[in-house]
Amino acid sequence: MVRGKLQRLKGYINTETDSVQRIPKDGPDPEQEKTSSFPFSYEKKWYDFGFELHFYEGEYSLIRRKTYPVSSFHGSSAFSDLFHVHKQWQEEEEDHPLSLKGVDLEDLLFFDTETTGLSSGAGTTIFLMGYSRIKGDQVEIVQHFMPGPASEAAFFHGFLTDFSDTNQLVSYNGKAFDWPHLKSRHAFVRNEVPKLPLFGHYDLLHAARRLWKAELPSCRLSIVEEEKLNVKRVNETPGSLAPILYFEYLNHEDPEELLGIFKHHEWDVLSLIVLFSRISQRLLHMPHVQTTGREHLEMGKWFEQAKNSQQAEAHYVKALEYDGGIRQEAYVKLGHIYKKQKNPEKAREFFEKSLTGTGESKAAREAYEELAKLIEHQDKDYEKALVYTNLAIESEKKISRLLRSHKPKTEGLLKRKTRLEIKIEKWGDSQ
DNA sequence: CAATAATAGGAAAGCGCACC
DNA sequence: GGTGCGCTTTCCTATTATTG
């Protein structure tokens, strides 16, 4: 039985080994199948689904191209938002991981694959890969389908002959999953097909995590879609069923059940477009995007890490408008920025402001310690510095009592305390 | 199930300031 | 003017979360 299956997969031209009863009742007439130029069963269905044959060195893959106007919506965003976002990125002075400065918008490939499993062992293959992209005033979706293991070269050939080396990938966890996977599968057919291009690669999983790690229960694409894009998926099959459905397809050749997977893949690559837009709109302070205080805070951190303190400051300042905990954190972050900018007076002002109102927190602990430092070295008011050091120690203790996971790190603070006590001992009060 | 990359936290190294 | 200490930056490591 298994042997028969393998043989069937190996060469579609060889219909001799296929028993008649294995062809489903509503399948094509076996007589016709032999003479037809279409190498698989269910020719009509494939055409109805919009797929075209791709022929390469005696093998075949299937390709579907589909377009929507850029004015159409996906969730609560229009694809055309990307135009504005792209334009806005050109205005930015400093670099950022998501920046599109100098990138041709139509070079972006919003890319995803469907595979026969998660493990990257030898048994797992890619059977569907493709992308969405902007083409003029249309969004184009290109899907390459591998109709069987014997078609991998044609499958890759169709995919690889379609774009240029200026293309850039945009994916969700593609850096860790899709691309390495694609590379390892490509190795099997590398002699027969073009080389893999060396892409620039934006991975939106990491962008999403940066913004929403604290806010969302998980940063899985489906959750992000629901919470941040208002995308409600209909008529699609979850990706987790892809392996089973593909194996079933290989048995009976009826693509009907794969329709939901094609839809799923389409949703994925379309969501990537609007996700890219949504995140960029927030990063660039573009209007009409509801942005939370937490998001501003996280974006501030992101810009800070990208060494763009101007944008970092802008987002932290925005975060000041939100509720207690957020505002407190933002004050502390701003304090650090001004401290780095050699403006200790302003730094101190912001650390102090962070302590008004809100109770114990890591931010408060941080502020106490920073104030102790500034007062010791600027004012040389050792008594007062000692007071803040003790407050920091108290704060640290309370936090570790509150958060079981947090192990107290008072070592540095205690060191500071004894040093200050010695100084006071030596010189009495602040001179 | 595997691979990957970002991140957080810690250790180590470089830098600047104060003190003698 | 040399020395030591505290502070910041950088480097390294372990952990975590996502993909079909």
Automatic annotation (TrEMBL):
Q: Does the keyword Isomerase apply?
A: no
Q: Where are the TPR repeats?
A: 328-361
Keyword annotations for this protein?
A: TPR repeat
Q: Does the keyword Nucleotide-binding apply?
A: no
Basic and acidic residues: compositionally biased ranges:
23-34
Q: Which residues form the YprB ribonuclease H-like domain?
A: 109-278
Name the domain of life this protein comes from.
Answer: Bacteria
Please give the Gene Ontology molecular function terms for this protein. nucleic acid binding
Indicate the transmembrane segments per the record.
none
Give the start-end ranges of region Disordered: 17-36
The protein's matches in Pfam families, at most eight in alphabetical order, are given as:
RNase_H_2, TPR_8
Provide the protein name.
YprB ribonuclease H-like domain-containing protein
